[in-house]
């Protein structure tokens, strides 16, 4: 039982608090002989890193990842994994030496302050401590390692809804995702959201979002019934991300509205002699096992709980107060959840990919 | 790593196929000294049992559960748990000796036939084998044991949507749930659904559904960050149920549409001197830890894949065919998922309840 | 965390008490397509079964194993594993309806009575309940399934010491093992032990024993550093058997007495071009990973705690008493531990064999 | 499944290679509110640190441990655990920039070189890489944290045999353990060993050893049948230490020689009204559960495999060679295994202590 680990054969353990000296993770179970450098990981760190646009927190963190173990330069000068645990670390550099006394004894509504305090009797209140979204940096680092395991698999994510504003799916263009600060696959939506989020940000408010993660090239057979289903693990992985309140696979909640005729994915034999599903309502999973179609997962992120409007709350000692959260925050924390969602997909797939090699998992 | 187990300290392992001699489960980690009889479990089996109305499969199974280990009659004549594993078994009695050759080599669209075959190279095709919803009977049995651990906690579930037809939440009445064959908390919805599902059933079609599970009286502090969150485990538990395609906690996907002001649950001190949340958008969980408010989980079930309309498919050997699934099936498998959802909630809570006793989990 | 399970990918969960209706196990993670019948398992049950000679308990149990799930007869009429959990059950038939009130409230020295009672506040006192060596029947059943996974591996065990009397290793003959009631690989030792144990038995006394388990044909590479070492898992597996107090690998405790020069296993290239170890002091494991040499494990079993001589003890309520254990007992419980040791070796190897397929475990 | 982790609720994951930039561990599941500073840990690091006498390797490592997460200074200025993962790191400082080409392609007999290479196809040959005993530094660090959980428990270890030379148990004096470079509880043995090991060292040879670990003040009830037994976990913990080849509990292998009358620990009621065992042949465990008596575990360490005498071996490419291991090595690696054995005992007990709080584990 591990409160700070996930995965079974590709197993990630994260540690660290928002304002401690560093954060890090240990990736255990990565197969040997995969080329891996810090640059391979840094590429993904850059996507999640704060302070890259006015729509995310202005905290400045270079998020430079260091590999402390688990790799070795081989005879050809290529640094490769050795099969031993890979320890990754990022030093925290922008922990402002501000006075935290203001939130030290106050429970910020929507945050984990109240429950951490109730459970542990102590908590690192500086920047949310362990419950800060800063922890997700290490998921992204682990996800970059996971991608090395997944040769031939493409994992991408996009923001598909901000507040009540959804993208127009007929405009979907993966090439757009890196062209705007929202990871939007729809140019027009991105433009609209920029305007909308500026208003939200200036009002000191926040909004929620929906992220869609898609994995293509997934081999048939990943996942294991009954409690090791691929969708079960994906669901848990996404739900474990800060602020996530809902997860769906393929048609998701929409499937409840459909008839069996509408929802079934019919099968034919393709030109290459292999089975082809004519639709992908299932989102790539049947009975918990991948069917070769793209894996499609969506998750909903609640609005950032840190807002400038005062909300009713209490102190540790039970006084009624009004709380307003100043400081550097994301008006829509869902934006930076996009690379995190990708990373979680990668980690789950790497785990099941390795398990599947043994045929049983 | 266990493909057929879930939970950590309250750990359930299920076994058995739809048409084998029996199905069963082992509940490991149940605390000692809890009164437990077969009748305590049977009550819940009755709720899930097939053939109780014309809206569920006509397979006739008494689903009589036997306790094979883990209990002992004490000096006062009360049968109690002993802390050793509790083995539960239900014999299958209505495995019709029909000819299965028709589906033996055919992949039924929407079912796990194709993926099981691709992964294992062999599958028990009789009634879906291991992938049959029959397995959920043992979840219900385990859930009945879990409830014994949860003194003071009330766990209830209701069907809130059938196909596109939702209940009217202003009519919500828990007392109605046992008064209709749908576990509907809304009398009018039940009447409408009866009519609607009759049409679906007669057409040989099927529809999806949404179930809501609510736990009241949950102590503050259950759940453990970061990867042992209560909502993470609830999400995985529900997603592991057959045909489930989406899960949400509290406001769920709706939270994406809200502002931080709308979504935050404000806190005051109640008359009893304890913290009170003025709303429950969070669904009872903050930072992965229960906050004392009702836990609210919803999940979406896809329409039953077995329908009388022909669908395009292929055989094991790659021939293109049309498949129609005759036999005894639920027109809306979501109905019988209601007690299963309750059971999964109970098992997850029992697990976290025991973990929390040690303060750390 | 599972108190009643062992193994990771080949995972065995046992349940049942000595005098309950049945005992059983669930084998999860067995690969598909392996031929498996009840007869395959029964062969090994017969070796452990009580009442086969005057040197073991006279309890009469047919120990007939039933397969309740996880197998399917294929098109050629061969029953094979399907990759789903294999549930095995043995009904208890010789639970004498005797009056247990005598031991109900008394703690038998050397038994688990005191500690079970202290931990759980309740215990099944009938025949030792869960702590009875009867549980090991299911290990033997699981071991028979494990052997199916281990094509080309030969697993054998022998009794090498009874009380202070060791075999003469220069007489070692595996063919003798099935020719005497002790699984002795030395004909003369068997003859001597028969005489010796008759005296022990008639005196109502008991003695300890040492068992040696050897696996030949083990592929190079099984086991994973640092905490998944093959010898670590073997050690735990043997120590979990009732009454075991010591475990050693290869030279074991003798290695402490040697110099580095004596203990190192030198390596040459054999006629087949493959590495050959000139000695096997290591017992087949280097750095926790199998080196291709025979795996050699020994474990020590303490004398049966049930004896006819009175011993000082106390009751549940703290009265000082003298306890004598009547009933049907093994004068040397180490004898029946021989097939159990083999089974545990098989289960550990099957687990690591499957893990190794994924290269990392 | 975790190759580099051990424990369930108090869970330790280690990482790092002998000659990488650092080694470290993550302690997950440590209860909150325990005072913990780097000094608390450093005390134990000092005991295991190399280069402290001429009888251990001359590698110079300050082994300065840093706490990177999981603690917080409370209002009284006391640094305490918070219930979040504790990340510990030690930088490697004395990785000599020597030429490793000599051992790069050679398999040193007795070492893990051959098996790591066979399993992973790549290995960090510098100083043994991951298989180096350097990893045990982090076990000692984790053990220091574990001791914080074990209020009232005293854990001590001693060297009781070096090569064939055992201590005289009638001389046993715990106060002597810190007075000599061997952790010997017998002054005379220490003097003899000094002389003996000087000869071994000068000859470039090595010898094995036996360590005894004793825990006093252990509460009744730790450990869980059947596969979560306290002695099972202790056995695995000790066997996972580098070079360990045998483990025994209480009487251990000697128990095999005894009769039931000799081996049974009789019970009386002590002056304080509590049960007292008149002897401790069991070593503090009955049926896998602690009985309140001192836990006694012994383990055997093989002689250091690095010796100056040439041994036959092969290269990676299959050439037959003679290998001699130069460099800085312990003539008796068993000496520094003493604090490691203590640490493993502490970690296992902390794990079971926390599990036991939940009554079931």
Automatic annotation (TrEMBL), chains A, B, C, D:
BP term (GO), one: aromatic amino acid family biosynthetic process
Binding site for NADP(+): 48, 54
GO cellular component labels: cytosol
GO molecular function: chorismate synthase activity; FMN binding
Reaction(s) the record says it catalyses: 5-O-(1-carboxyvinyl)-3-phosphoshikimate = chorismate + phosphate
Keyword annotations: Amino-acid biosynthesis, Aromatic amino acid biosynthesis, FAD, Flavoprotein, FMN, Lyase, NADP
Enzyme class, spelled out: lyase
Necessary cofactors: FMNH2
Entry EC no(s): 4.2.3.5
Binding site for FMN: 130-132, 242-243, 287, 302-306, 328
Cofactor binding note from Swiss-Prot or TrEMBL: Reduced FMN (FMNH(2)).
Domain of life the protein comes from: Bacteria
Record Pfam families: Chorismate_synt (PF01264)
Pathway entry: Metabolic intermediate biosynthesis; chorismate biosynthesis; chorismate from D-erythrose 4-phosphate and phosphoenolpyruvate: step 7/7
Assembly with partners or alone: Homotetramer.
Protein family: Belongs to the chorismate synthase family.
NCBIfam families per record: aroC, PRK05382.1
PANTHER family cross-referenced by the UniProt entry: CHORISMATE SYNTHASE
Role, per record: This reaction introduces a second double bond into the aromatic ring system.
Name this protein carries in UniProt: Chorismate synthase
Provenance organism: Roseibium hamelinense
């Amino acid at each position: 039982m591990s409160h700070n680990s996930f995965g079974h054969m590709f197993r990630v353990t994260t540690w660290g608090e928002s304002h401690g000296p560093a954060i890090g993770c240990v990736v255990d179970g990565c197969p040997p002989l995969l080329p891996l450098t810090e640059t391979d990981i840094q590429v993904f760190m850059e996507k999640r890193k704060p302070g890259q646009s006015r729509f995310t927190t202005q905290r400045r963190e270079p998020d430079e990842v260091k590999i402390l173990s688990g790799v070795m330069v081989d005879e050809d000068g290529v640094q490769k994994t050795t099969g031993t645990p890979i320890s990754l670390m990022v030093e925290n550099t922008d922990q402002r030496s501000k006075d935290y006394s203001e939130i030290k004894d106050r429970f910020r509504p929507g945050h984990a302050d109240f429950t951490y305090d109730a459970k542990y009797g102590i908590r690192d209140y500086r920047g949310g401590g362990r419950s800060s979204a800063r922890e997700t940096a290490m998921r992204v680092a682990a996800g970059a390692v996971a991608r090395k395991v997944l040769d031939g698999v493409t994992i991408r994510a996009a923001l598909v809804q901000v507040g009540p504003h959804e993208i127009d799916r007929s405009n979907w263009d993966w090439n757009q995702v890196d062209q705007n600060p929202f990871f939007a696959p729809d140019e027009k939506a991105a433009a609209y959201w920029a305007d909308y989020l500026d208003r939200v940000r200036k009002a000191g408010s926040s909004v929620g979002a929906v992220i869609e993660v898609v994995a293509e090239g997934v081999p048939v057979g990943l996942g294991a019934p009954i409690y090791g289903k691929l969708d079960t693990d994906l669901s848990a992985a996404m739900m474990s991300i800060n602020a996530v309140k809902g997860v769906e696979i393929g048609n998701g909640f929409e499937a409840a509205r459909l008839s069996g005729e509408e929802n079934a994915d019919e099968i034919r034999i393709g030109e290459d002699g292999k089975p082809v599903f004519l639709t992908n309502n299932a989102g790539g999973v049947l009975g918990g096992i991948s069917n070769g179609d793209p894996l499609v997962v969506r998750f909903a992120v609640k609005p950032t709980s840190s807002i400038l409007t005062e909300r009713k709350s209490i102190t540790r000692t039970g006084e009624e107060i009004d709380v307003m959260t100043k400081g550097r925050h994301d008006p829509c924390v869902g934006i930076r959840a996009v690379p995190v969602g990708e990373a979680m997909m990668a980690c789950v797939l790497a785990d099941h990919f390795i398990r599947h090699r043994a045929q049983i998992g």
